Fold this sequence. Notes:
By secondary structure, the protein is an alpha/beta fold. It has 12 helices and 14 strands.
Amino acid sequence: KPELLIITSSVCTLYTREAIHLLGAEKRVGVLKLGTTWPLPPKLVKKHLSLTDKILIVEEVVPFIEETVKILAAEEVREIGIKTFYGKNDGTLPMTGELNPDLVISALSKILNIPYQTMAPEFEKKLEAVTASLSPNRELTFCPGCPHRASFWSIHEALQMDNRKGFVCGDIGCYGMGMFPCGFNVIKILHAMGSGLGLASGFGKLNAFGMDQPVLAVCGDSTFYHAVLPPLVNAIHHRANVTLIVLDNSGTAMTGFQPHPGLPVNAMGEESPGVDIAGVCRAMGAKVEIGDPFAQTETRKSINRLMEEEGVKVLILRQSCALSPEKKNKKKFEMRVEPSKCLGDECSCNRLCTRIFRCPGLVWDKEQKKSRIDEVLCAGCGFCALICPAGAIGREEAVNQ
Ligand code: SF4
Ligand code: SF4
């Protein structure tokens, strides 16, 4: 029978175990780690609640487990008796910000009356400053060889050439970085998963009020199945003028390549019928084109053409993620910057590749005043050879292909 029961889950279990260990409170505290937080396993929770009178709930974000456990405890009060709860609602743990072992230690030391000196605020500040000074300064960017960088490059070019102040509504995935310089700041609105096309279809009706800016939306293939089907139905039903670009990298890249319904395999690794994005969009009544983001000119032309047309148009830009098992550590092209052709800082280039395109596989050699390929980082996608205005970046089919 522990003096205190801690109910927790996920990463908070590690904070809890560390806190108990540092306070030497192993014999006084019991831990119930929940694998499933909704619905609660009522028998398991009730069994543990009946062992003690004091319960601390350690969880991130809102006090969800805390409130559901309290409801269960109220329903079972005749059998398990009256309990005292500690958690976010009574201020034992903070309601905002992330938890950490220090916060759990501070809560435990108060409940169990164990003196413990947590890190002094001045020391914590110093530690943060030292850590920041030692960390390399890295910008948020797409991986080398990422097809999204190529897609956003072409979208950006198409919008520039169209010259009607067209804009892109984004969605949630790696490609959300299209709102940063690595995506040429192409995304102007980023709200929530599935909201990109939803918002775009609303903007795509404003032509009735005189707006003539082309409206685009981007989503990933995984997001398409997850959250873009309802706004696509809405856009088609309401005859919105919108171009949806599906950045299809053949997987759920941002969270670790989990399969999605477009693939011929399900989450159990079994063969499954893949649901074809193009077929679904055509069946709904959208005009569909399929392209390769690494085919720069064709992609740019497709986007310009589709922006001119009325109704819902879908362009699927298909190229698997640079980190996918089929591509990782395999270069399609061997790349080289020819120093005699590289213009560098000179007018009409102004370091376009390293200053604007900014693939991490390209580096600016300050001493030579030329760009060069970083052999280790370059994924050999070959795209930068298409953007150099001086034709200084060369590519040759790699022999390992
Ligand atoms: S080929 Fe160019 S764009 Fe592709 S990964 Fe290498 S440096 Fe980057
Ligand atoms: S490689 Fe091409 S784009 Fe890059 S600095 Fe040289 S000339 Fe400019």
